């Protein structure tokens, strides 16, 4: 059964935080990438390009972990462990939405032939810490 995001977890993800996603390399080692992300219901969505290492890793093994740290308080963080599903439908729209969220301008960096992939993470486990840091 999928875990539900709390209101504070949703607010953290939908802020201008920069989540880090961990995928599993073919040799079993973790591979980390800083990403742009947002919520869609209780799922977290982000975009990647077909053929990038995280895409290849997720095609082979959809297990994923996201770590989201509050931009103004490193003691407020969220860990989401779950399963990713991939879909090319809506990829261009998602990267544009995320570019508007993080930079305020449309995304213009894809090259002809690039295929954008929507990565949807459904949480199996959510751990949220919110300490004052004192």
Looking at this protein, list some descriptive labels.
134 residues; alpha+beta; seven-stranded antiparallel sheet; 3 helices; 7 strands; 22% helix; globular
Task: Provide a short characterization of the protein structure.
This protein has 134 residues and is of the alpha+beta class.
Structure in words:
The chain is built from 3 helices and 7 strands. The protein has helices at 7-14, 53-60, 91-103, and strands spanning 20-24, 30-34, 38-40, 43-49, 63-70, 73-87, 116-130. It has a 7-stranded antiparallel β-sheet. It is globular, with a radius of gyration of 15 Å. It is α+β, with helices and mostly antiparallel strands and 134 residues long. 22% of the residues lie in helices and 43% in strands. The model has no long low-confidence stretch (mean pLDDT 95).
Assign an overall shape: globular
Mean pLDDT across every amino acid position: 95
Q: How many angstroms does the end-to-end distance come to?
A: 36 Å
The overall strand count is: 7
Q: How do the strands line up in the largest sheet? A: 2-1-5-6-7-4-3
Q: Low-confidence parts lasting 5 or more residues at pLDDT below 50?
A: none
